[in-house]
Design brief:
homodimer; globular; alpha/beta; Maf protein; RdgB/HAM1 (chains A, B); dITP/XTP_pyrophosphatase (chains A, B); ITPase-like_fam (chains A, B); nucleotide metabolism (chains A, B); hydrolase (chains A, B)
Chain lengths: 198, 198
C-alpha cells in the first residue's frame, strides 16, 4: 500500500522505508503539484498534522509527516518548533547554532540540559489522523563536534554517551533518535489503520 | 534611611526615588568598587536576588535590584531572562527586536500575545531577602512604533491600549509598567522591614 511522506528529503524517505517495512513509501517529489505547507502551528503536533492532512488531501493517499526540534530547558523548551528558523532564516543551521550558544553563554554548564523531540503524524484522505511522539534527552556543549547529521547535532550529547549526535553513525543515530522513536511508535498505528482497517 | 539600587541607570534610580518616597535611594555610581554581577540565574527572581544580595553584602546597606523581560507566549515565555541578550549580544535592542520579529514571522497575529514581567528584590546585609513581581500583559506588533522607552517597547501594545509602550509618556508607562508594579508592590515590604523592623 502506498503512503506519501510529506518531505522532499531523500534521507528522511529512506529512513521511513526502513522503519515502515512492507509499505510503498514515496516522497513529495512524485507530487510536484503539491505546494509546501507553511508551518503556522506552535507545537510539533500541530505542524506535523498540518503537513500530513494537507498532503493526504491533495494526494488522495495516506500521508505521514513529522515536525521535530531541539528543546532547551533554560529556554523553556525553545527553540522547539522554531528550531529550523531560530536565527530568523529557515534552515540556517550554522547561524542557529551560533545564536543558541550565544544566548546561553552565561548559563552554567550543569543547566544546559535539553532534548530533541519529534511528532510523527499519519493522515488519511478521509481526514482521520493519528500521532506518535519520540524524544531524545541530553545536554548541550559549547563547541561543535562531529560531521554527521544536521541542525543542532554538533552541539548535542545524548544522555549516556560522550559523543554528540553528529559524531554517531547514521545507524547509531536512527536507533536512538527522537525521529526514529516517533516513527517506530507510529509504525504499528499505520499498520493497524491501513492493513487491518481498525 | 539609605538604600542602594543595584544599577548605574539614572532613569531607574529616579523612578525608584519617586516610588520609595522617604528613603535615600543611591545608585551603584556611589560604589565604584562594587563589580557588576553576572546574571547566571534562569528566572527573573534568581537574577534580581543575585544582584540585590551581592550589592547589599558589598555595600553593607540594604539593596534593591530588579530583573525584567518580555515573555512571548508562543516562545514559551522567552526571551524572558534572556531579553537583553536575545540576539547574543547584551543590550543590542535593535538586533533583539529584529530577531524576535523574524522568529515569529510565520505565527498568526492572534497568537502574538506576550507580557512584560519584572521581579524586584530587596536584600539586607544580613542576607535576609524579599521579592515582589509585576507584569504587564499585551501583544506584539510586527512594525516598530514610538520613540520612548527601550528594549522591546516599540513592538509591544499593552492590553486595553492601541499605542505601543514606546508611544506612552514616561509617566504613563510608569503607571502601568511591570517595573512600576513590582516596585510599588515592594515599597510596603521595604517600609515594613526597614522602618518597623518587622
Amino acid at each position: 500500500m502506498k503512503i506519501v511522506l510529506a518531505t522532499r528529503n531523500k534521507g528522511k524517505i529512506a529512513e521511513l522505508r526502513r522503519i515502515l517495512d512492507g509499505f510503498d513509501i514515496v516522497g513529495l517529489e512524485e507530487f510536484p503539484e503539491i505546494e509546501d505547507v507553511v508551518e503556522t502551528g506552535v507545537t510539533f503536533e500541530e505542524n506535523a498534522l498540518l503537513k500530513a492532512v494537507a498532503v493526504a488531501k491533495a494526494a488522495g493517499l495516506p500521508a505521514v509527516a513529522d515536525d521535530s526540534g531541539l528543546c532547551v530547558d533554560v529556554l523553556n523548551g525553545m527553540p522547539g518548533v522554531f528550531s529550523a528558523r531560530w536565527s530568523g532564516r529557515h534552515g540556517a543551521d550554522e547561524a542557529n547554532i551560533d545564536l543558541l550558544l550565544a544566548q546561553v553563554g552565561d548559563v552554567p554548564d550543569h543547566l544546559l540540559t535539553a532534548y530533541f523531540a519529534c511528532c510523527a503524524a499519519l493522515a488519511l484522505p478521509t481526514g482521520e489522523t493519528r500521532v506518535a511522539v519520540g524524544t531524545l534527552p541530553g545536554s548541550l556543549i559549547r563547541e561543535r563536534r562531529g560531521a554527521h547529521g544536521f541542525g543542532y547535532d554538533p552541539i548535542f550529547v545524548p544522555d549516556g554517551d560522550v559523543r554528540t549526535t553528529a559524531e554517531l553513525s547514521p545507524g547509531e543515530k536512527d536507533a536512538i533518535s527522537h525521529r526514529g522513536r516517533a516513527f517506530r511508535a507510529l509504525a504499528p498505528i499505520v499498520t493497524e489503520l491501513l492493513v487491518t482497517g481498525a
